[in-house]
Each structure stands twice: as C-alpha cells, then as structure tokens.
Amino acid sequence: MKNLLFAVLALLMMSHVVSAQPLTVQDVLQSQRELIEKSSRRTIGPAIDALVDSGLPQMQTVLELWQAKEIWQRKADGLFFTATKNDDGSYTLRDFEDGAEVGTAPSTDLKQLKPNSGVRAMIATALVQFQLSDPDVTKRRDALDSIARDPGPDLLAPLRAAIPDEADPDILARKTRLERLMTMAYDNDAEARVAAINDMSGDLGVDFRATLNPILSTKLVAAPAGAPPDGNIAAELSPGGDALSYSGAYALLVAEDLVPVQISADARDAALEANIEGGRVGGFPVAQLNTEAARDQAYGVLVDQGLAAPMVTPKDVEASLAAYRFFQVYDEPSAEVTEAAEAALAASEGRVAVGQAVDLGLDALSLMSIYFLAAIGLAVTFGVMGVINMAHGEFIMMGAYTGYVVQLFVPNHTASILIAVPVAFAVTFAAGVALERLVVRWLYHRPLETLLATFGVSIALQQLAKNIFGTQARPLTAPAWLDGAWVINDVVAISYIRIAIFILALLFLALFLFIMKRTRLGLETRAVTQNPRMAASMGINPDRVNMLTFGLGSGIAGIAGVAIGLFAKVTSEMGSDYIVQSFMTVVVGGVGNIWGTLAGAAMIGGFQKGVEWLNPSNTLAAQTYMIIFIIIFIQFRPRGIIALKGRAAGD
Amino acid sequence: MSTLLEVSGVTVSFDGFRAINNLSFQIGPAEMRAVIGPNGAGKTTFMDIVTGKTKPDDGYVIWGDKSVSLVGMSEAKIAQAGIGRKFQKPTVFEEQTVQENLLMALRKDRSPIAVLFFKPSADDLSRVAELATEIGLHDALERVSGELSHGQKQWLEIGMLLAQEPKLLLVDEPAAGMTPAEREKTTAILVKAAKTRAVVVVEHDMEFVRRLNCKVTVLHEGSVLAEGSLDHVTKNQDVIDVYLGR
Amino acid sequence: MNRSFIARNPSVLIFLSLLAFFTLGVTVLSEGFGVGLVSTSFVKTLGKTLCLCLIAIAMDLIWGYTGILSLGHFAFFGLGGYMIGMWLMYERTRQIVEGALSEGVLPPTPEEVQAAIGNQIFGVVGSSEFPLIWAVADSLVLQLALVILVPGVLALVFGWLAFRSRVTGVYLSILTQAMTLGLSLYLFQNASGLRGNNGLSGLQNLPGVTAPQSVVSLWFFWASALALGLGYLLVAWVVSGKFGSVIRGIRDNEARVRFLGYSVETYKLAVFTLTACISGIAGALYYPQAGIINPAEVAPIASIYLAVWVAIGGRGRLYGAVIGTAFVSLVSSWFTGGQAPDVPLGFYTIRWVDWWLVLLGLSFVLITLYAPRGIGGLFDLVGRIRKETGE
After folding, report:
1. Residue B74 at interface with chain C, using a CB cutoff of 8 Å
2. Which pLDDT value is given to residue A470?
C-alpha cells in the first residue's frame, strides 16, 4: 500500500517533469522501477501497460531486450541500461534512446533483470501489438502466425487494436478473420461471440472448425436420478447407447467414488493367489481352480471370510446405473454460444461433406486418368489387334526407366521430361516392334500362346531391369512447376501433377482418335484387323501394319510410363502393378473401342475411389472389392460397357 | 400333317441390320426340306435361332408335340430335346478316334456324373458299329478322325448327328467340297434319315437339291420368298430375279 | 475298348512305379531313415516339388485337357495351405501357451488359454481376438475338410459366375488372374484375420510330435508322394473315358459339344472345382514343408509360373506336367540357391541368381514358339522314330 502510494507520487512528479521536457524511456522505466525490480507475474501488469501506453517508439525494443534478459540496472543510481559484456568481464552500458555508450561498469555494480517465464509471456503479449503493427510485412505475418498457432484471451485486445491501421489487404483479411475467430472463443460478451459465430457459419476453413470444437467440448457428468446437474447441458446419455457403454458409465461412477470398484479377473486371481494356504484357497484345492466358475466360487468364500472385497455383480452394476443419470455438459457455460456453435458447425460440416465429395470426385478423376493412361496402349494392341501382350506392363516400366536415365544426363527437370517423352516413345516403340517381329507375329490367332510367350518376355524384362537398375526405387522427378497443388479451399485441393496427368490422358485420347480415324496407318490398321486377306489384296502389307500398330501401342505405353513414373515409384515391378488393372479396364470397357476403354477406366477408377471413401483406411480392400465387382459386372455385360454387337464380335 | 417345328414371325437384327425379318417356317415330323437362298439370305442365322445360339428379338419358335418354346433354352437343352445340327465346315473332334466321336454323340445321359462313370456296353458298341457302317467308316473306327478325308469327316459328322437320334436334323451345306461319288452317298444317307425324322438341308448347289427331291424353301433378305417343289420355285419370277439379279 | 483303364494307359503304371521307386530311394538315402546322403532340407525340397507336381496335374486337367487357361490355381493352393496352417499354428500355440500358463500359481482356465493364444497369434496385427474364420481351428478334422471345401466352394462360385456368362479364352484367363490378385490383396490386409502380410508361420512343427525334422520331413514326403500318386491315378482315370472325350471336345470345339447336347458350362465347372480341390490338397501338403505361408504366395505370378511349368513339360499329357514342374522347379532352386557357378566374362560376371529368371523367361518364349508340345513332345518324337524304324 505504501509502495503504491510512492509510485503514484512518483508518477505525479514525473508527469510534472514531462510537461517540462520530452519523456524518455528511462523516465518511464524509472516510474515503474519498483514493479520492475520485483518482477512478479501478479504485479507486473500495470508496469508493462505503462511502458506500452507511453507510446514511445523505442518501447518495442526495450520490451524485446527485457524479454531477452538484456537489461541491466546500475545498483548505484537504479538506472536501467542495455549492456554488452567486454573481454575483461566488465560491461559497456548503452542508453535506450539512441544506443549511445554511456560508460562501462564492472559486473558487481550491475544487476541483470531476469524476468521469469510468466513475466516473459506477458511481455510477449504486450509485444504482439507492436509486431502486429510492425512496418515489416514479414514480422506482421509472423506475429499473426504465432497468434493463430497459440491464441489466447489476452491477444484479442492487441489484435483488435492492430486492425484499423493495417494497409496490406491480405494481412488485413487475415487479421479480421483471426479477430472473428478469437472473438468467438474469448470475448467476454456472449452476444458478440454469438454474432461472430453466426457471421462465419458454414465457413469451410479448418481454423473455423478448430475454433468451434473447443467451444463445444463436453465432459461427462453423473448426477443422482431426479437432479440434473448445473451447467450448460448438451445431452443426456443413457448407458448402453452408442455414446456411453455400461462399463464406461460405471467407470465414471467409480471415478467419482460413488460406487465400489468392480473386481477384475486379474484382481480376483491376485486375491486368490494371496490367500493360498496349504495348497487350498477358501477350501478349494488350487488344482481345481481351472475354470472361471470355480475361481468365482473360491473368491466368494474369501469374501465371506472377510478376506477380499465383495464382487460387484452385473445386477449391482445395473442397480447403480439406474440410480444415476448421465449428462454431457459443455465446458462453455453460455447456452447461446454453444447453440450457435452447434448450428454453425453443422452448417460447416454440411458444406465440408459437399467439398469432400468434390475432392473425392477429383481424386477419382485422376485415378481414372491413370488407369486410362496405363490401358490406352493396350487398347491398341489388345483392343484393336486382339493381341494379348502380358509384357505391356514392362513397356510402361521401360518408359519410366527411360525417363530416369534421361534425367541422369539432363539435370533440368522440365527439359528432361520434354526429352524423355519422345525418347521413351522411341525406346518402347522399338521394343514393341522387336517383340512383334520376333514373337507375336508367329502366334496370331493363338491368343493363349501369345499370352504365355509374352509373359515369358515379361519375366525376362523385369529381371533384366532388376539386374540393371537394382531393386530399390529410382526417382523420376517432376519439374518444380508441377509441385504443389491447386487449393480451392481447405477441403478441395488437387495437385498439379494430377491435373497434368488428366490433361495427358485427354491428349492421348485425342491422339489415338486422330491416328485411328484420320491417318493412313489408322485406316490400314482397321482394314487389317477387320479382314486381313481383303486388306492384303488391296495392296496393304498386313505384316507392316501389324508391326507399326504394335509398335504404336507399345510406344504409347512408354509415354504412359514416364507419366506414371512422375508420381509412382519407378521399380522393376511397377509394370505388374498395372497390368491386371489395365486388362480389366479394356475388358470391362469393351474390347475394340477406345470410348469403351475410357468408360472402363472411369468405372474402375470411380468404383475404387468410392470404396476407399466408404473405408478410407484400407486401399487394399478397395481393390479386392473392385475385382469382385468386375467379376459380377461381367455377368451382366460379358462384352463390356460398350460392346460390339452381332456377328462381327465373334465368339 | 402335324407340325414338329414351327417358327413364326421371328426377327433378329445385328447393329441395325435385319438378318432375319418376320420369318415363318414349318416342318413336319418325317419330312425332308431344302432351304436355299443367296448369300446373306439368313440361312445360317435361321439355324442359329432354332438351335439356341442366337436369341430372336421377336417371334416364336415352337417345338414338338408338347409345343415347347425354344426361345431362351440353352443350346445343350435344345440338342437334348432332339434337334441335331451339322455345321458348314466339318467339325469333328480331330484328336479323337471315330469310335470316341460316335460314342460321345450316342443318345445317353449327358450329365457329368453319368458320363464320368460311363462304360460302353456291348449294345452301345454294336450301335456305334452299325452307324459306322451306315456312313461307310466301319473300317476306320479306331482311326483318329483328324486323319480322315474331307468327305469322311462330313459323313462322320452326319453319323454323330444320327447317333444323337434327333427328331430334327439341320444340315448346313453337306455337299460342299465333295466329289460326285461322295455326294451321291451323302444324298443316300440324308434321304434314308428323312424317312424317320425331319431333315432340313441348307444348300447352294441346285443339282444336289434336285437330287434330294423334296419341298424347297427359298429365303431372301431374312424372310421366305417362295416355297414348294424345286420346279415350282425355279419358275417363280421373284426367285429368278433374286438369283439372276434384277 | 473294354479293357481296364490301367491296361489302356500304360503310362499310369510306369509313372506310379517310378514314383514308388523314387520314394523308396529317397527314404533309403535320407537322414531320417537311411544312410544320410540326402539332407533333410533336400528331402523337404523334393517333397515340395511333389506337391507342385500334384497341382501341375490339376493345371494340366483344366488347361491341357479342358482348354481353360486358369491363371488362378495358386489361389486354391494357397487357400489349402492356409486352412491346414490355421490348425498347425493354433494347436502348436495352444501347447506352448498351456505349458507357459501352467507354470503360474493357479491352473489356467480355458478362457485364459484362449486369450493367450489369441494374443500370441494375432499380436503382430495388433489384435488378440479370434476372427470368425478361426472358429474350427482347434479341430484337425474340420480344418482338413476345409482344405478341400474352401478352394472347392470358391472355385464353384467363381466358376459358376464366369462360365455362366460364357467368358472364354484369354478373357477367362485374365479373370482368373484377377481372382487370385483379389485374394492376395485381401489376405494382405490385417483385417483378413489371417495375420496380413505376416502370414502363418512355424508350420513345419507338427503339434504334439517330438520326432526330429529329419523324420517329420520324410512323413510329409511320403504323404506328398502318396497324394501325387492318387492324384495322378484319379486324373488319368477322369480323362481316359467318355468324360475325357467330352472335355477334350470342349477344348477343341466348344460349340460342337454344346450342340451334341452336353451342358458345356456344367462340365467346365465340374473340372474347375475338382482341380481346385486337388490344388487345395497339394497346398495343404506343401506349406507344412515350407514352414510359412503368406499372401505373396497367391500373387498372380505364382499361377503363371504354374502355366509355365506345365507348358514346358508339355500340356495335354499328365506325365508332361509332372516332368515340366519337377524339372523347372528343381533347376530353378539350383540356380537361385546359389549353387550354380558364376560365369566370369571379364568385364561382367554372370551371376545365375540374377540371370536365371531372364533365362527362364526367354527359354519359355522359345518353347512356346518352337516346341509347343514341351519336353513331353520328345516322347512323341522317340515313339515316332521307333515306329518308323520298326516298320
């Protein structure tokens, strides 16, 4: 009391002085000297306020120095300085106003201000408003980040104070949003909070939902039947429901010492073991205690003898639970606020569900694109030519490895991908032509043999890749401009690479259609596949056409390999990951029709994503269900979604 | 005369092309009938419909005394009901002997269990021998049928059809690629078969049809153009137009 | 035509004699009962090879004789292994757990034993509850029945769906491949109740048997030889009569068989299911010798190798399937086991562990192209030459 009086007196004297000459930092500090010296969390508040309210531009630095324990007080006159330690152990003192040296002092003459963590936190809060108004944009942004990370009621006022002067529209928006969120959480006025909540109702931001959730946090309370508890009740729960199990309800009662503890099997057994006398427990030989019933019986004897706590039977539990009612009570006392928050959260979740559905749709779309990319080469070799090429997956792998090798030589990722695409096409085109010349052409119209022979090729190629590149995955790095994602809001985002793959799939579709419908090769291919003898008699060389078509399908697989390698691991086994799905895509879609392949990819990709959505933790299960689905689907449309009808389809 | 098979108002189209257009056809229990028509007239599709390979879009196919509908029945069921079919190309099981081929066709229980425990009885073997004699392959019983000549394969297939003891025989171009002597023999086999059952022969060769000496049905663009004796239909102006061009 | 089926098929008698002779020879040379020239691990390798020969016979029946190239028969093989593995693992764990619990003060209750077994078996997948599919794991008889039933029922359901919709040729092959892929992905999940990718292990130990592995391995070897002999006899009998005629007819011309009045789908289904059951038995004998089964065993690649073995041996003849399988799997284990000598080329050393699969793949291509009858085709060649020189 006396101190306070002195302080007020001093302040009066100071203000008198102030009128005479400009106020200095030292003046302000001296005015709060006693509080600063004591430096306790409970009392320091007015001192910090005084420093802040002084409006001196240097005060931010002072607070920062104080927080960093870099202020020393000269014992002799009680003046405050910042100081740097010299080599001889003495300190060079500096003034706060302009940083000018004002002399040196031995450490014995100085006392360092060491604010404890509580005080430092209060200083930090005080600093926030300086930082929020700092001329440096980065500092303002950092301050906002730190508040958003760790908000608190104290920060609300400084934040509000920092809004009117904000010039940067981006930061202004963030400040305003943060202010709304913190108003919801910390404002003293319930109406203001409700208003803030209603303002943002339905917002999709994660921060919004993260702010609402603590407001809606509840705790479980048991109350004697007939007497509901005080507080903001969220709901009454009945034991045995979804939200509260019998054992959970009983455990709550136990925790509040309202009922006796249930004796667990382990506790029972421990009691039995503790009471063995001469090979018997409660009159029963130990050897007979090999059933639960016998142990219960023996324990009953112990209870009767007063050697153990009585069992709590299920009947007892039932009776105890009947004597109590169970409530979920909001931690937040104001019912208006919780009601508004519930409504706002429900609105948000409704919109989030829509957003998630959109996100899932985009995900499914990119999966479809991947399946389509993997299958489109097959649509040529299998769909158009009817050749089962089990090494198709290995062509995808070759394409991906080609991309990897190109990147070894061309470090620029954009350039390397642009080079890799044609090179991969060339490599796999050549491989496809070689395969067609050496193997496939001897086996036309013997599809099972083709399947087996190309499978042999597949084994050999896979092992060859393993021998050359090793077993570990090789990176195929996408250009930097494909990193990142197109973020639509906190729920819906799609990575650029997936967009690129989608576009690539469309390009491939267009390319395929162009080649098949508009080029000489496409015309000849269709002629040869429909009637090779007729085509041959019209001067088309079926050998050449088959070779080129097979090469084309393989080349497309190679390019698909580069694309797939950008987001999947490049390993020698990557081909086999796609081969079954690719065949499924073509078969389900309908052989011999590119639109069928597209439809097949859409169906398989969509279905798989749908299952993943129902059971998000388990992508393996999704694939199993997909295969079951395909088997059943083929029951209804044995020739695929888009089937060729009639005799042309053959048997 | 009672009707064994009645096809009425049957229509089938493939991708918009009407292969069979409101076709109606009847045949009695012991009758020989030749079906002729230019390429694409729907002769093979007609057989496909009767034997269950192709499902008609519209119309009825009624079979036998009990007037069973054949539409929607499986090929195997239709075959078991008494309709035998011979394909255009000789299709016998080339890796198996003549005897095995005939035994497989013999009218017996077709269920897997019965077949698994089947042991040919003396009766079965003599029936096979009898059939083989009928088709002139008695000496070839133990031969692998892939080694037979083209004509012999055709006969073997006819023999297999007879072994099935069908009430109706559908025969697709039996004389194609045969020598004159072989044709004569084929005619004899078919004519004999038609004494006890209905036989429908699809043929291009007018000479062969004349030799069969039976009622003729002319198909054109999926429907019946004319019906009657060969002399009658060859005088029909429509038939002449179709065959000789307009 | 009415001669007994053995008399009509001399190869059956020859095969069974050779198998008996081989079994006797291995026994005499073994460590368990003989002079010890053949190591126990090699006895196991041979026993496993016999099981592979058994599934190869099943494969030959479905592919070589019926013309259905199934790329999924290892799914049935694996299921058979899982079914017997469940009993082996359960029973062995029960004995260990009971032993451990009886050291406690109180004698264990059945509930405690059950919980401890559950903990022991499913601890690796973060669970201790017995899934429903383990309901009869304590009964050897029932699990043995499941060895046949589970593959059989799967084949019945899958085959019914596939054949009913007239899926044939390569489409069916791809569909069977999808089936085995689906099964292996399912088994990879922890939630499958079969320990996810850990699979079942310790299967080489017969519960309650104290005999050393050198003896146990021979028991399994004999059982495998017996199963192969019986399997060979059964399949040879099935293909010898009219049933054989019908299924070969289906292979060569399905439509013709149908127009003869045979329900082709029923026959295919019967053969598919029968071969699945045989595969299940083969798997149930194989995995106790291998000691461990995991989902990778039923990956699609395994079933394709099966087709490779049968093709190399020569399909459409049972001894071909056996020869191909025995030859390729033994050569393969020789190459990949590191016993084959490396080939130094100066600039590069060919290590067979790395290059064997390349060699296998390429030789498979060559066999498909130039020797579609496989090794078995050599017998035809020999027979023809003898015939020609004899005449």
Report:
1. yes
2. 87
Determine contact, residues B145/B139, Cβ cutoff 8 Å.
no
C2 has a chain B CB within 8 A of its CB = yes
Q: Chain A: nearest CA to C218, how far in angstroms?
A: 34
Residue of A nearest to C177 (CA): A580
Number of independent structural domains in chain A: 4
Of the candidates A215, A232, A253, which is a domain's last residue?
A: A215
User: Are A519 and A398 in a shared domain?
Assistant: yes
Q: Which stretches of B93-246 are DSSP H helices?
A: 98-105, 112-116, 122-134, 150-163, 180-193, 206-212, 230-235, 237-244
Segment among A377-391, A451-465, B43-57, C320-334 with least mean pLDDT: A377-391
Residue A277 has what DSSP assignment? B
* Contact between chains at B17 and A646 (C-beta distance less than 8 A): yes
Model pLDDT for residues C227-265, shown as the tens digit of each residue: 999 999 999 999 988 999 999 999 998 888 988 989 999
CA distance B128 to chain A (A): 32
Predicted local distance difference test score (pLDDT) of residue A6: 55
Look up the domain containing B236 and give its range.
5-244
For residue A644, which residues of chain B lie inside 8 Å, CB to CB?
15
A179 within some domain: yes
Whether the CB-CB separation of B135 and B102 falls below 8 Å is answered with no
pLDDT at A359 over 90: no
Kindly state whether residues A112 and A162 are assigned to the same domain.
no
Q: Which two tokens stand for residue A30?
A: 């001296």
Which tens digits make up the pLDDT trace of A149-196? 778 787 888 788 888 878 888 888 888 888 888 888 888 888 888 888
Q: Based on the fold, state whether residues A332 and A442 are members of the same structural domain.
A: no
Residues C263, B74: C-beta atoms closer than 8 Å: yes
Asked whether the beta carbons of residue A576 and residue C301 sit closer than 8 angstroms, the reply is yes
What's the mean pLDDT in C290-308?
90
Q: Do C106 and A269 touch (CB under 8 A)?
A: yes
Answer yes or no: is pLDDT of A356 > 70: yes
Find all residues with CB under 8 Å of C184, minimum gap 6, and list them: C75, C78, C295, C296, C298, C299, C300
Distance from CA of A610 to the nearest CA of B (A): 34
Domain boundaries, position A168: 133-215
The answer on A541 and A607 residing in a single domain is yes
DSSP H helix total and E strand total for chain B: 10, 10
| Residue A583 forms contact with C (CB below 8 Å) | yes
> Do residues A328 and A264 both lie within one domain?
yes
Instruction: Measure the CA–CA gap between A566 and A560, rounded to whole angstroms.
Output: 10
DSSP A256: T
Q: To probe the interface with C, which of A292, A378, A388, A463 has the most C CB atoms within 10 Å? A: A463
Instruction: Answer yes or no: are the C-beta atoms of C60 and C317 closer than 8 Å.
Output: yes
What pTM, to 2 d.p., does this model score? 0.82
Measured in angstroms, the CA of C42 and the nearest CA of chain A are apart by 27
Domains of chain C, by residue range, sit at 5-299
More confident residue, B94 or C344: B94
Q: Which domain CATH number covers B24?
A: 3.40.50.300
**C353 touching chain A per CB within 8 A:** no
Determine the pLDDT at residue A114: 81
pLDDT at A340: 86
Residue given tokens 């088997």 in the structure block: A631
Q: Is the pLDDT of residue C211 over 60?
A: yes
